[in-house]
Amino acid sequence: MTMAAVVGRTDSDQAHVRWLVFARDRGIFVLWALLLIGFSVWARPYFGTVDNAILIANAAALTAVFAAGIAVGIICGALDLSIPGTAAMAGCVCGWLMTHDVPVWLGIAAGLAVGVVVGLVNGLIALRGFNPIIVTIGTLSVLSGLASALAAGYTIPGLLGLEFMGTRRYAGVPAPVWIVAALFLAGTVFLTRTRDGIRLMAVGGNAEAVRRSGIHSDRYKVLAFVISGFCAALGGLMTAALVTEANPAANPGIIFNALTAVALAGVSLSGGRGSLPRVLVGALILGTISNGLTLKGIQPFWATTVTGALLLASLGLEKWVSTTVSRRLVTTAAASAHTESKDQA
Q: Which residues neighbour 96 within 8 Å (Cβ) at sequence distance 6 or greater?
């Protein structure tokens, strides 16, 4: 192979790698744009309106909050499946306190504290060498039972004091949308602009390398669980605020929708790579699909079917892109090394 051929092949491989990385990291924005255009044409004139856009954002808010917690955990290599139980427990603790004449702000603080404590317990147990998935499944079961015991097996109604973070609107925008905007802004700044956030992502990529560099990697794994628990508790409080009652039943659909949004965002399930803005777009994609199909009078189970198909497709795409990029990089490195050895000879 001539020098020109080797260089040409190397350039071609590098261009292919750049295209694949772009598809993985930015493809979700293209997908959402295509969905918006498609539904604007198919479901006109109702889909492409400001009011409907607000409805989509509001519908995607809960999924986005839970997905944020799942994403941070996965980025650090700690998948938390106890989120539905944490959400139920946080809502019930807040609701029980409010029905016993405790101030609303204190009930909310207690609910959020539940999430932090659950995350801390999950993290500390996982550090003992137990599989995080098994640990959090066990925690899910415990929390579901405790929430039912606290609420005596019934919902806790009459939580009108939570309306300010549920059904109320500010400047025409529902409260959950403002909460999600604040959460994702703070989370993005933390992960990309702070030392602890950058270290947390590094731990997910290679915990051993981080440990050898002198950083206490276990601390950041626990922090990831705590953040995940906090987001789950916040989602539970928002759920209670939307329906003005706390339900002790853990909803497994929370995990399904959140994981789908995270997978669509291209968050690496092996940890170390992810973006909260892309996770938010993933949640919006799910809300867009559900909204568009509803406007066309299509049964809700088809939205679930499409969501499942998207989850499988995104996992397949992630696997294919990662494998292809690795193969191309190895090929490029080998070609460059071969060229350099020939030049030296």
A: 150, 151, 156, 246
Cβ-proximal residues to 122 (8 Å cutoff; 6+ apart), any chain: 80, 82, 132, 135, 136, 139, 225, 228, 229
Contact 203, 221 (CB under 8 A): yes
In the chain, where the domains are located: 11-336
Whose tokens are 């892309």? That residue is: 278
**3-state DSSP helix/strand/coil percent for the chain, to nearest 5?**
80, 0, 20
Q: Classify each residue of 280-291 as buried b or exposed e, where b means 16 or more C-beta atoms within 10 Å of its C-beta.
A: bbbbbbbbbbbb
Closest alpha carbon to 107 in 115, 95, 116: 95
pTM of the predicted protein model: 0.88
Round to whole Å and give the CA distance between 276 and 258: 12
- Over the chain (345 residues), the average pLDDT of each successive run of 10 is 51 66 75 92 91 95 96 88 96 96 96 97 92 93 95 93 94 96 96 89 75 80 95 97 94 88 82 84 93 88 82 78 71 58 56
Cα dihedral 137, 139, 144, 148, rounded to 10, equals 160
SS3 128: coil
Helices 104-126 + 217-243 axis angle, to 10: 140
DSSP helix/strand/coil, 246: strand
Radius of gyration (C-alpha) of the chain in whole angstroms: 23
Q: Give the integer Cα–Cα distance in Å for 16 and 10.
A: 10
Q: What is the CATH number of domain 11-336?
A: 1.10.3470
What proportion of the chain, given as a percentage, has pLDDT over 70?
Answer: 86
Residues β-bridged to residue 174: 169
